[in-house]
Design brief:
The complex is a heterodimer. Chain A is built from four helices and seven strands, in the order H-E-H-E-E-E-E-E-H-H-E. By secondary structure, chain A is an alpha+beta fold. In chain A, strands 1, 2, 5 and 6 form a four-stranded antiparallel beta sheet that branches. In chain A, strand 3 and strand 4 form a beta hairpin. Chain A is rod-shaped. Chain B contains four helices and seven strands. In chain B, a hairpin with a 4-residue loop joins strand 3 and strand 4. The longest helix of chain B has 22 residues. The chains are: A alpha+beta, B alpha+beta. At the A-B interface, helix 1, strand 1, strand 2, strand 5 and strand 6 of A face helix 1, helix 2, strand 1, strand 2 and strand 5 of B.
C-alpha cells in the first residue's frame, strides 16, 4: 500500500503537468479556434403580399450611430452554478452584448392628406396648406446592425429587444435634434420653388397648425 | 520537474489573462459611447408606392467531418420597400408650361428604390434546431443570415415591378396635383 502511495506521489508532478497541458491546449483552442464558415441561406422566393399607393414627400433625413449594451445573468452551466451562490437580483457572472446600430430617420409630408380645401388658386397666386411634417420611416436593417461584443448565449428575442431599443433611441434623438422642424422648413422652401416653375408668380406654402 | 511546472503555469496564466485586443476594444467602445455620431441632411424624394415583401430565410449547417449533428434555422421576414422619384434630380427647366391652353409637360427622373426597411421585430425566428454536440447559433450568425436575406430581396427589386408602379403612381400624383392648381392638360414623361 505504501509502495503504491509512493508511486502515486512520484507521478503527481506528471499528472499536474499533463493537466496543465490539457487546460493550456483547451485555452489555446478557444482563443485561436478556426472560425466557422459563413453559413449561406437556401434559395427562397420573395413574395409581394401588399402593394400600397403612397404620396410621401421626404424632405429631411437623420442619420445616427448608436451603441447599446445589455447584460443578463450568465446562461452557461458554470455561470448558473456560480450565480446560485450570489443574490437573486445581483448575478456574479453576467452575459453581455454590445450592438452598434446605424439608423436613418426619414421625415416629411404625407401628401395623401392634402384635401381640395388645402389648394387655393386665384389669378397668379397659389396657396397650399400642407399637413404637418411627420416621421415617415425609421430604418435599421440587419446590415445596419453590428454585434460588437457577444458574451454568453443571447436568444433572438433578447437581441430583438436591444435592437428595438436602438431604433427607439435613434427616433427620439432625431426628434430632439429638430428633424421635424428641419423637414418642415425644407419642405416649404422646396415646394414653393417647385410650384413657381409651373408659372405662378406668387406661391404661399403653409403648414397646418 | 518543479521548474517545468512553474514555467508552464506562468505561460498558461499569461496566455489566459493577457488579452490586449479585448482591452483595446473596450477602450474604443467607451470612447464611442460617449460621443454622438449623427447627421441631419436634406433630401427631396417623392415616394409613390410601397411594397410589403415577405421572405423565408432558412439555412442548414450540416456537420463537417469533425462535427456531429446539424443545425437548422428558419426566419420569417417582412420588408417594406418604397419607390418613387428623387426630386433632387428634377430639372425645373424640363417643365414646359403653355398658359394659353393651360397645359403642362413635366419631365421627371426615372423612378428608383427610395427606402428599404426590415424592422427588427418583423424578422421572426420561426424554427431553430441545434444538435447537443453543436454550439447554438450566435446573434452574429443569425444577423449574418438575415443580412443575406436582405441582400436577396434587394437584388430582386428590378423583377418586382415596383419601379413601374412608382412611375405610374407618380404620373397620377402629378396629374391630380397640377389639375388641382389649374392645368387642364398634364403630360408626365420620364427620362
Amino acid at each position: 500500500m505504501r509502495r503504491f502511495r509512493n508511486s502515486i506521489y512520484r507521478l503527481l508532478p506528471f499528472i499536474a503537468l499533463v493537466a496543465l497541458i490539457v487546460v493550456g491546449a483547451a485555452l489555446l483552442y478557444l482563443k485561436f479556434k478556426p472560425k466557422e464558415d459563413v453559413l449561406v441561406i437556401d434559395e427562397t422566393s420573395n413574395i409581394v403580399t401588399e402593394i400600397r399607393k403612397i404620396s410621401e414627400l421626404t424632405t429631411a433625413c437623420y442619420y445616427e450611430d448608436v451603441i447599446l449594451k445589455d447584460k443578463k445573468a450568465a446562461s452557461s452551466v458554470t455561470g448558473k452554478v456560480v450565480n446560485s451562490f450570489g443574490k437573486k437580483n445581483e448575478p456574479i457572472m453576467e452575459d453581455e452584448i454590445v450592438i452598434v446600430a446605424s439608423g436613418n430617420v426619414r421625415a416629411g409630408f404625407d401628401l395623401s392628406k392634402l384635401t381640395a380645401k388645402d389648394v387655393v388658386v386665384s389669378d397668379s397666386l397659389l396657396e397650399v396648406t400642407l399637413p404637418k411634417a411627420e416621421i415617415l420611416d425609421v430604418i435599421v436593417n440587419p446590415s445596419n446592425f453590428d454585434i460588437y461584443i457577444e458574451d454568453g448565449h443571447w436568444t433572438h428575442e433578447q437581441v430583438t429587444k436591444v435592437e428595438d431599443r436602438a431604433m427607439n433611441r435613434i427616433r427620439q434623438d432625431a426628434v430632439n435634434d429638430g428633424l421635424l422642424q428641419h423637414a418642415t422648413e425644407l419642405g416649404v422652401a422646396k415646394l414653393t420653388e417647385m410650384f413657381k416653375t409651373f408659372g405662378y408668380s406668387e406661391v404661399v406654402v403653409k403648414v397646418r397648425k | 520537474m518543479k521548474k517545468l511546472i512553474l514555467i508552464a503555469s506562468v505561460l498558461l496564466a499569461v496566455c489566459a489573462s493577457c488579452n490586449k485586443k479585448d482591452v483595446l476594444k473596450e477602450l474604443t467602445l467607451r470612447e464611442k459611447m460617449n460621443e454622438k455620431v449623427s447627421e441631419l441632411t436634406e433630401m427631396s424624394e417623392l415616394g409613390t408606392v410601397e411594397y410589403k415583401v415577405t421572405k423565408v430565410v432558412k439555412a442548414s449547417d450540416d456537420p463537417k467531418w469533425y462535427q456531429f449533428g446539424d443545425r437548422k434555422i428558419l426566419f420569417q421576414c417582412t420588408a417594406y420597400l418604397k419607390a418613387g422619384i428623387d426630386l433632387s434630380k428634377f430639372d425645373p427647366s424640363q417643365v414646359k408650361v403653355n398658359e394659353s391652353d393651360k397645359s403642362v409637360v413635366i419631365t421627371l427622373p426615372k423612378a428608383e428604390l427610395l427606402s428599404f426597411n426590415i424592422p427588427p421585430d418583423e424578422a421572426k425566428l420561426a424554427y431553430e434546431k441545434v444538435a447537443l454536440t453543436r454550439f447554438n447559433f450566435t446573434a452574429q450568425e443569425r444577423n449574418l443570415l438575415l443580412q443575406q436575406g436582405e441582400e436577396d430581396i434587394r437584388k430582386d427589386v428590378p423583377n418586382m415591378g415596383i419601379l413601374q408602379d412608382a412611375e405610374k403612381n407618380a404620373t397620377s400624383f402629378f396629374k391630380s396635383l397640377l389639375s388641382q392648381i389649374g392645368f387642364e392638360t398634364v403630360t408626365v414623361k420620364f427620362v
